[in-house]
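W.,

You were right to be curious about this one. When I first looked at the sequence I had no strong expectations either way, so I just let the prediction run and decided to look at it fresh. Below is the sequence, 501 residues in total, followed by the output.
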Amino acid sequence: MKNLRIVFSQSKGTINPNIYGHFSEHIGGVFYDGLWVGEDSKVENVRGFRKALVDSFRKINPPVLRWPGGCFAESYDWRDGVGPRDQRPERVNWWFNYDGRTESNQVGTHEFVDFCRQVGAEPYFAANMTSVTPLHIRNWIEYCNMDEGRTTLARERGENGSPEPFGVKYWGIGNENWGGGGSMTPEMCAREYMKFSTVCASAVKEKPKFVICGANGHDIEWTRRLLAECEQDIHGRRALRNIWGMSVHYYCGGAGDPLTFTESEWYQMLRQADYMRRIVDDHRAAMDEFDPDRRIGLIVDEWGCWHPDGSGPSKGYNLFEQQSTMRDAMVAAMTLNLFNNRCDVVAMANVAQLCNNLHCLFLAGGEHFIETPTYHVFDLFKGHQGAKQLEVVNEGGYFEEEGKVRLERLTASASEAADGSVTITIGNLSCTEAEEICLSGVGGELNGKAEFALLAADDVHAHNTFEQPENVKPVRWEGALSDGDTVTVPAGGILAITLRK
């Protein structure tokens, strides 16, 4: 038997709902035939967006949605996506040489903001810092956020159907500038950011929350050099003052076939997921050298599993589309638990991507639509949003293998909401053995009526398909929970408990 102790007297603070953010890029089938089917489609829709997806997504309380890239942003002109849809240009986009598909611009600024409002998410725009001028992005901010009728751009927004400002708070200035976003050095990226953020800050009275492009994975040297350059005192101005957040991207991958992985590859992928711990801790430590007061938040802009494509229902037509099994669900559970337990460090995170792509929550095509096991993890964990994090003493032990980093057998986090309810989320990382777990409180007791939700399958390769859309879904029940009670989590299973006193 393993022990998990919930420490009521120790907390790192409030779990920012933005940790449960999402990412939607114009790539492959994410938007077209995924999120967007068009207003004239036979598929039931809400102003062009797939209704089944809208309804499902809204249920998990998505706090923020990043758009339109990703790499797509590097060649995106926001003006292509405003005005009458039948007059918008068709363009070669960033991903054309990968799949030969062009961008119709049927989903642009107005449509995307409408989608965010339908599901209750704040829009987070990834702005192009690679191939346009600072004025171009400044004008986009003005178009989105200027008071009704105040300027020509605000009046144009009204003519296009939205007199009231959109109020877009979050703006990423640049994306992966160490790679496709211009192959920049950290110093070059910092200088470009200084120029863009200085110009863009003048667009509206309420200054947007700007995110600077941080590192690829565990490249700590990028963070140090980037912030060192931003710390330069240039005529009394330090660019650090203009930074609300710094992004980091990290993907797991290369651990076997997404559907037929071996037992060894199951653990290989989970060790990669656990590496996020070092990425978060080491980047924050480097940031603290320049930002000891932690005014700049760490934003995990993109995270998730990146498998070889072709395992999804489109059979390779949708670029980077992949299936989501219980292994992907466990990676999601580990990552969200880690972010909960680092809520004093991680200000926002966005799983990649929402539909028909990488570590997606939904797969869709034509009249077909399914929720993946990853979706159900976000559903099980949503009680943590905005709650006070509680420390968990994890006495579950470790997997230890010579030559490999040890891996905890259990992943867990806990939180207490304003109404006194406690949410506990637990994942059993063993793919072969069930775990019996004793739950107890320190500085308080775990007593009351409990709601249980278990996501598990007889086979950790299990996933949902168009033919079997509910092959993997949570089982829910209610019962009393007393301090010191035990719960059993099946092999590869994920359990959420909501305790109401």
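Here's what jumped out at me. The longest strand covers residues 297-306. And, maybe more interesting for your project: DSSP finds eleven helices and 25 strands in the chain.

Coffee later to discuss?

I.
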